[in-house]
Design brief:
Domain Disease resistance R13L4/SHOC-2-like LRR: 516-722
Strand order of the largest sheet: 7-8-9-10-11-12-13-14-15-16-17-18-19-20
Radius of gyration: 30 Å
Strand content: 5-15%
GO molecular function: ADP binding; ATP binding
CATH topology of the largest domain: Leucine-rich repeat, LRR (right-handed beta-alpha superhelix)
Domain NB-ARC: 122-289
CATH superfamily of the largest domain: Ribonuclease Inhibitor
Structural class: alpha/beta
Number of domains: 6
Helix content: 25-40%
Number of strands: 20
Largest sheet: 14 strands, parallel
Shape: globular
InterPro entries: Apaf_helical, LRR_dom_sf, LRR_R13L4/SHOC2-like, NB-ARC, P-loop_NTPase, RX-like_CC, Rx_N, WH-like_DNA-bd_sf
CATH class of the largest domain: Alpha Beta
Distance between the termini: 51 Å
CATH architecture of the largest domain: Alpha-Beta Horseshoe
Protein name: NB-ARC domain-containing protein
């Protein structure tokens, strides 16, 4: 049975309870019994969640039950996150805070006695609600959804030449878990008409061998989802009893299944041409007597078919919706409607696509739903999406040596295999992808209880909404904007966890995000994990930003007026991402940046000469550091440096030569240098990063010296990119011939002499 979205949330909450940080907090604040009771109640409810969500669409009472449960699960997560935050705060104070600060904490809400009382009260409250919900779970009805057939396989199956070649044709729908007994029973029933459910597995295997022995058969295994290679091998060995000319066709939505089961390359269906789409559409939209549509419908028909984007199922659904509709307004309505409205059509495209979603593992379902937080049709950066997932707590590192960013890449690869996104190039943090409009509609459908797209005039959001995508509808809407969207002033916004903006609209409508708007977000949305304030028009971030204790991602980039950050920003111990690039008026970073103990991503534009005084050299968990347009910056850090987990470093458009402590950057894998010079010393030369996999250099007079350093080091470079470097004349021979270097791309290097390369690894533009 496919795991439900709520099941994934509940499992995440149970996992958080078991995490070391939360367990430490439970012990510190002596709430073991409260958490134990909460865990037992939650475990009991989790047992029925998958079945409940499969049944929800046809049961209004069940929808209300699940909606209430979702809200309570989020409340439980808020309580646990608060505990986690207090542990981090305690660690930071112990490490960096003075006596005066510790005394002050005794009288604050962070005092263990006060906090224990507060947390105990909240836990008891949510546990009471969960208990009430648990009592009602006996009303749930179990039900499995049916599977569809595959049109292409049917065409092959019923083709006249196939009928002549294969006297024994078998069509079997494969159980979701590839249950061998049920699959063999199905094959035998197709072949003989006999039902042998009373046979054991050994008897069935013998019967199947006798049935197909030396016979030429065609077997279609329809809608396969199981990735159990051993079960498939057992079944394949049984089926080998047939004649050598026998054929097996497997239909699946999952490319990994195709790889496991196939002995030949998979046949991937491409979209229909416009001409073929028109023919298919007319077949479903008109009866046999209407060979040609009315002239007044031709243009509308053409527009509708274009919306299908060559997807056969959508063409069929659109045609079916208009069958026997003779009035022009019906056609116009369909043409101008959103794809999402097709959901109500029986056997419509969304219900078919939903099968792919229903078979996602529980941890991927909330990740897929976040597609709805990006504008429709946008190109989504893998790094941006993964950081959003991290901020919302959708990635949990279960393997000690695998970073959350790497787990996020695996999630994206998994979604790609299931055809839920279209990746551009190879999958890594620098990649991007698009989402088909139909898939996007599916994401908005499954996320509609949690997410909402709003505009500047939206009065109120639904009570259960936790994530919003803010988008202004018109230039008129911006000109009449009062500074704060009305929905932010309503009580329903207090539980918001993420506020994103349509980035494109922010670029053309700069001036929307004011200090008044920022203060409204901080004061009204205490549980924010992700706050997008990019392209803002305020000079100073309010000191009250520290009240957002759960904040993981703070985006402030491209604010051309921002001059100052408050010192209180350093109290955000949960902060994972701080984006400040393009803030050209920012004077300095706060001095106590070292207190941001969870920070993994930092991008900066500042007027400082050195980042040493801000303490970024102590950010032990930093994985990415980007330094852009820092005209005065000469020194990154010196002396003690704890950037031992820094994997990516980007430096661009910095006017003065800069010294980099290569010897301390022991985990550096990716280095990008653009339009700036480095201070190159003997010490740097001998300490050049040994784990470097990617190097990109642009607009640099030092390109040849840097390449010489790379050539002399023992690094494991895999990708080399050189842009706009006229001084580049050659690629060192040893580096060029290194088999680990898979790609060399040069653009705008007119004086480069190309060496012969049997592997053709060089791309030159």
């Amino acid at each position: 049975m496919a795991e439900s979205l709520l099941f994934g949330i509940a499992r995440g909450v149970l996992g958080k309870i078991a995490s070391p940080v939360v367990q430490e907090a439970i012990a510190i604040y002596s709430v073991e019994s409260h958490i134990h009771n909460l865990k037992n109640t939650l475990t009991a409810i989790t047992a029925v969640l998958s079945d409940a969500e499969e049944r929800r669409e046809k049961n209004h009472r069940l929808q209300l039950w699940l909606s209430r449960l979702r809200d309570v699960l989020y409340d439980v997560e808020d309580v646990l996150d608060e505990l986690e935050c207090e542990v981090l705060r305690k660690q930071v104070i112990s490490r960096y805070g003075g006596v005066k600060e510790k005394v002050g904490r005794f009288f604050s809400l962070s005092n263990p006695l006060i906090l224990r009382q507060k947390i105990s009260h909240r836990i008891n409250k949510v546990r009471k609600t969960l208990s009430e919900i648990s009592v009602k779970r006996i009303n749930l009805i179990l039900m499995r959804r049916g599977m569809g057939k595959t049109t292409l396989a049917k065409l092959v199956y019923n083709d006249h030449s196939v009928l002549e070649q294969f006297k024994l044709r078998l069509w079997v729908h494969v159980p979701e878990d590839l249950d061998l007994k049920k699959t063999i029973e199905g094959i035998i029933k197709e072949a003989t008409g006999e039902s042998l459910s009373n046979f054991n597995i050994q008897q069935l295997q013998t019967f199947l061998r006798d049935t197909i022995k030396d016979k030429k058969y065609l077997l279609v295994l329809d809608d396969v989802w199981s990735k159990d290679h051993s079960r498939w091998k057992d079944l394949r060995d049984l089926l080998s009893e047939g004649a050598n000319e026998s054929k097996i066709i497997v239909t699946t939505r999952d490319s990994e299944v195709a790889f496991i089961m196939g002995t030949h390359p998979a046949y991937r269906l491409e979209g229909l041409s416009h001409k073929a789409s028109m023919a298919l559409f007319r077949k479903w939209a008109f009866n046999e007597k209407e060979k040609q549509p009315r002239l007044d419908l031709l243009e509308i028909e053409n527009d509708i078919v274009k919306k299908s984007q060559g997807v056969p199922l959508l063409v069929k659904t659109l045609g079916s919706l208009l069958y026997a509709k003779v009035q022009k307004q019906h056609w116009t309505h369909i043409r101008d409607s959103e794809t999402l409205k097709l959901e109500e059509a029986e056997n419509g495209i969304l219900s078919i696509l939903r099968l792919s979603y229903d078979h996602l593992p529980s941890h991927l379902k909330p990740c897929f739903a976040t597609f709805s937080l990006f504008p429709k049709g946008s190109v989504i950066g893998c790094d941006n999406l993964i950081r959003l997932w991290m901020a919302l707590g959708l990635i949990s590192s279960t393997r000690e040596k695998l970073a959350m960013e790497d787990i996020g890449v695996e999630y994206i690869k998994d979604l790609q295999k299931r055809s839920l996104l279209d990746l551009v190039g190879e999958c890594d943090l620098t990649s991007s992808f698009t989402v088909h409009d139909l898939i996007y509609s599916l994401a908005t459908t499954v996320a509609h209880n949690d997410s909402s797209t709003v505009d500047l005039k939206t009065v109120e959001i639904s009570e259960g909404v936790r994530y919003v995508l803010l988008s202004s509808t018109s230039s008129e809407g911006v000109s009449t904007f009062g500074g704060v969207p009305p929905f932010l002033r309503k009580p329903t916004s207090k539980r918001l966890r993420a506020i994103r903006w349509n980035a494109f609209q922010l670029r053309v409508q700069n001036g929307v995000i004011t200090e008044e708007y920022v203060r409204a977000c901080i004061s009204n949305c205490n549980y924010l994990r992700y706050l997008d304030l990019s392209y803002g028009s305020f000079e100073e971030l309010p000191s009250s930003i520290c009240n957002l204790k759960q904040l993981r991602s703070l985006l402030l980039h491209e604010n051309k007026q921002l001059k100052k950050l408050p010192d209180t920003i350093c109290e955000l111990q949960n902060l994972l991402q701080l984006s400040l690039h393009g803030c050209s008026e920012l004077d300095v970073l706060p001095k106590n940046m070292r207190k941001l103990v969870s920070l993994r991503f930092l991008s900066v534009t500042t007027k400082q000469k050195s980042l040493q005084e801000s303490g970024i050299q102590y950010l032990e968990n930093l994985h990415f550091l980007g330094i852009y347009m820092c005209a005065n910056l000469q020194l990154l850090v010196e002396g003690t440096c704890r950037l031992t987990h820094l994997r990516e470093l980007e430096i661009a458009d910095c006017g003065k030569p800069m010294y980099l402590p290569f010897g301390e950057l022991i985990a550096l894998e990716s280095l990008e240098i653009g339009h700036c010079n480095l201070v190159l010393t003997r010490e740097n030369r001998s300490n050049f990063p040994l784990n470097l996999r990617k190097l990109a250099i642009s607009n640099s007079q030092q390109v040849m010296k840097l390449l010489q350093w790379v050539d002399e080091s023992a690094c494991t470079l895999e990708s080399l990119t050189i842009y706009d470097c006229p001084s580049m004349t050659d690629i060192p021979e040893r580096l060029h011939n290194d088999p680990r270097l898979r790609s060399i791309e040069t653009i705008g290097c007119p004086n480069l002499r190309i060496r012969p390369s049997p592997a053709s690894k060089i791309t030159r533009t």
